[in-house]
Write a structure and sequence with these properties.
about 260 residues, alpha+beta, 8 helices, five-stranded mixed beta sheet
Length: about 260
């Protein structure tokens, strides 16, 4: 990983934003994929724009993209792209979706970007460096007790019956009026900036979480799976973001995940 890699990651975010903005709250093509999740013209245009840049500037690197699959699968460096994380929010005209860009080195995320192209908000996380939000340092919040925490998840409908029981174990430790739904990747940026304390998700794919770990970790928080293990390319999609590392044991105890 070099400074050029960080510059390239931000260049990818700019290209994705240029593809997305003209279609926001406009007419665009959309359809359902085989897993019933929606995909739009903007998703595909943004990923295509990013892939073209990587293939031109770093042809030896791998690419793992939500819409167009994987190339150079055996490369030690892999760019992981989610052009619009929160496509339903994009379709609904809600500017709480984001473009996710990660660079993995041997399966571990070393660079992560959350880019909200409508509000022009960008979080950049780099291993070993402080996370930035629009160029200034981002800092997660301290949380004295779990009962004081703001807890976020995209939707409880994404949990199967087993995972829902674990989530409710965590939710029961938080004030009901401090639980928020919706937000996808945007919630993790809010953890990094100190507005949300905990995010809990299950069933995520690599492109959903790879960019998030350097951002939350670099802001003083912690990203892990439901067993407290750090996230990497082989993680199972059970994801926690915790703004205050002092609350990690409390969260893990509450979620009581014993897979």
């Amino acid at each position: 990983m070099t400074p050029k890699d960080i510059t390239l990651a931000e260049k990818l975010a700019e290209a994705a934003g240029e593809a997305i903005r003209p279609l926001f709250r406009a007419k665009f093509d959309q359809e359902s994929k085989s897993d019933s999740t929606p995909v739009t013209e903007a998703d595909r245009a943004a990923e295509a724009a990013m892939r073209k840049i990587i293939e031109t500037e770093c042809p030896e690197d791998g690419i793992i993209g939500e819409e167009y699959g994987t190339i150079n699968e055996g490369a030690s460096r892999q760019w992981v792209l989610d052009p619009i994380d929160g496509t339903t929010s994009f379709i609904a005209g809600r500017p709480i979706f984001g473009t996710l860009i990660a660079l993995l080195q041997d399966g571990w995320p070393v660079i992560g970007i959350i880019d909200q192209p409508i509000a022009r908000e960008r979080w950049v996380g780099v291993v070993g460096r402080p996370t930035t939000f629009n160029g200034t340092a981002a800092k997660s919040a301290r949380c004295r007790e779990l009962k004081d925490a703001v807890l976020a998840t995209t939707t409880p409908h994404q949990f199967d019956e087993h995972d829902a029981e674990h989530f409710m174990g965590l939710a029961s430790k938080v004030a009901p009026r401090k639980i928020i739904y919706g937000g996808d990747c945007y919630n993790y940026g809010l953890v990094a900036s100190g507005h949300v304390d905990v995010v809990c998700e299950a069933g995520l794919m690599l492109h959903d979480y790879a960019a998030l770990a350097p951002i939350v970790d670099g802001a003083g928080g912690m990203m892990c799976d439901w067993n407290g293990e750090p996230l990497h390319a082989e993680s199972d999609g059970h994801v926690l973001a915790i703004g205050d590392q002092s609350r990690v044991d409390d969260v893990l105890e509450a979620i009581a995940c014993n897979h």
